[in-house]
Amino acid sequence: MPEFKRITSWLDGSQQPTLRQAEALAAKAGTLFPYLLLDEPIEEKVDLPDFRTVGSVGLKNPSSDLKQVIEDCRSRLDWYVEYAQEFDVQQDKPLPTYTLESNPEQAAKEVRNHLGWEPGHYALGEKAVAQLSRLIENTGVLVMRSSVVRNNTHRPLDPEEFRGFTLIDRGFSLIFVNAQDTKSAQLFSLAHELGHVLLGEPGVSGEEIDGAPDIERWCNRFAAEFLIPASYFKHVWKKFPHQHQKDAIATIAHRLGVSPAATVWRGVDLKLINREDAHELIEECSYFGPIKKTSGGNGINNIRPRIGERFLSAAADAVGTDLLPLRDAMYYLGVKKEESARSLLDSVRKAAA
Questions:
Q1: Which residue has better confidence, 349 or 300?
Q2: How far apart are CA 128 and CA 343, in angstroms?
């Protein structure tokens, strides 16, 4: 970065950046310029409860990427609620609601039937994620899946920071899934965040940790039964002798599109696998490869899952009205050219015709 070649001397105080250089540095770091003038860095929080953090505290020191994604999704959901109220949009197949006192496994069975989700029917990566997204959107929930901030392929999201989150506003919900994650992890995130919607509880989902609060445990149990039904697991498991547990896990994981780790822990929950053996079994069974990175291209096919079909349909319906001027539509879609916004929304109209 030639423009920051004196950054070492700025840090040790021997030189000072110009105003232009300081503003450029703030922009590069994704922070506000006044923050650079503080003696100590400010500790920021995402004002969504992070139910996978001990104590349900806010996610501390979120990256500028996560803050931008949440801000974008909040703006979209806020607009969609106004659109739904203005046009009297009715939810097609409203989801049932549950509380923490509800049995998550029973809820999973009921919601599977409600959505028409068949575990194992779409076991291959993107097909399973795309199909479950469609089924969830059919109930009136917005689903957005992206691996980058807006449509900027130079700002990939970090699955180590978060895997997904849920926003809820005036009875409408938005699920966001970090598509930089593996397909099996995305599938679990979708099911997990669906659990948050059913409970009416928003949150940010990250790595699994000990001491997770009740909401997080409920959503994990719901997702596990939703994607890996106990009856299916037991049916396959009994076909394999004890010495071939790895083969049973590989078979279940492959057929259902879930990870070996999720499969092993499901076996632990069902008391078919000893907890003491779980970590070793996961290591032996895992086929972790490199997460596929986004490699450029901001075409319509890339943008559609990032925004979600339900939101796109609403935007195509309202663009050009007082409710959605074209410039606002460009902001919500994350595109910089009017031509790109028109082309995308035209394609949505043609598909719906």
A1: 349
A2: 27
